[in-house]
Amino acid sequence: MNKKIQIGDPLEKAFDRTIEYCFQPFKFTKWLTMGFIAWVITLGENGFNFRLNFPTGNWGGAPSKIFMGQTKSISSDISNFINNTLTTEIIVYGIIIATIIILVFLAIWVVMMWLKARFEFMFLDNIIFDRYNIKQPWRDFNREGTSLFKWKILLGVISTLIVTSLMLLGLGIAIKMCWSSLEAEQLLQEGKTGLIIGGLLVFVSIIAGITLSVISFIVNKLLVPIMYKEKVTLKQAWRKFRPAFRENKWNISLFVIVYWIVVIAVGSVALIVLFIVMILTCFFFCLGFIPFVSGFIIATLMLPVTIFFGMFSYEYAMQFPLSNLIDEVEVVDLDSAEERFDGDNSFDPKTL
Prior knowledge:
Number of helices: 13
Mean pLDDT: 74
Radius of gyration: 28 Å
C-alpha cells in the first residue's frame, strides 16, 4: 500500500499507446473494426437535447399574476380536453400501447447493456495487445462480461427507482399542492409549501443521481480494468481493490477530477476537429444525419480519443496493489477422496 499512485505517468503512457495503436502503422480495417466496438460501448451515452421556449412580449402587470393567469388557462384547456375527448376505451387502448412501447424499449435497453458489457473487455483486450479481434475476446471474457452486465442492469433499476421516482414525486407534489394557487391566481401558503417539498425531493434526486454516477465511474474506469487483468468477476475485483481504495481515496478523487478536466479539454478540441472534417467531407456530413450511421462515423473518427481514455484508466488502475482475497471454496481431502474408489476403480463424483 506504500506504492505512490501517479496520474501523470498513466497520461503519458496512454498518449504514447494511442499514437502507436492508431498510426504505427495506420490500418483502415483496424479503424473500422475498433470504431464499431467503440460505437457499441458508447451506445445510449450521447444524451438528449432539450429546448426551452420562454414567452416573450410586453409583460405589463405583475409577473406573478401573469404567470398564474397563463398557467390557469393552460390547466383549464387540459381539463376540457380530458373531459371532452378522452373516453374509457381510448384510455385503455392508450395504456396498452404505452405498455407495449415501454416493454419494447426495455428489451432494447437490456440487449444494449449486455452488448456494452461484453464489448468493454473486447475493447481493452484489443488496445492492450495491439489487435482488432472480435471472436476471441468475446469468448475469453464471457464470465466477466456477464458479471458487468448484471451490475449495469442493477444500476439502471436503482437509478430508475430512486432518482426518477424522487424527481417525479417532487414534481407531482409541487403541482398538486399548487393547484389551489392556480385557481386563485395567486401563490397561496399551500402552494409555497408544495414548491418547497417538491424542490427538496428534486434536489435529493439530483444528489442521488450524482452519487450513482460516481459509483458507476469507479466501476467502469477502475474495476473493469482489474476484472480484465485478473480474470475475475466484479464482486471479486472489488474485494481485491477495496483495501487499496481505502488507502487512496483522495488520490482517486483527484483522478476523477483530472479525468473530467482532460475529457472537457480533449473532447472540445476533438469535437471542433470532427465538425470541420465532416463539413469538408460532404459524404460523411450527409451520412451523419442517418440514425446509427452517424454514431458509427463519429465513434470511428473519435477512435484515438476513446483509446486514450481507455488506456488512461487502465494504466492508472494497474498501479494499485491488489489484495489476494478470494472467494471461499470447498477444499477436498485427496486422501479421503481416494478411499471412495470402489473395487473396479470407478469413481462417483456425487460421493464428494
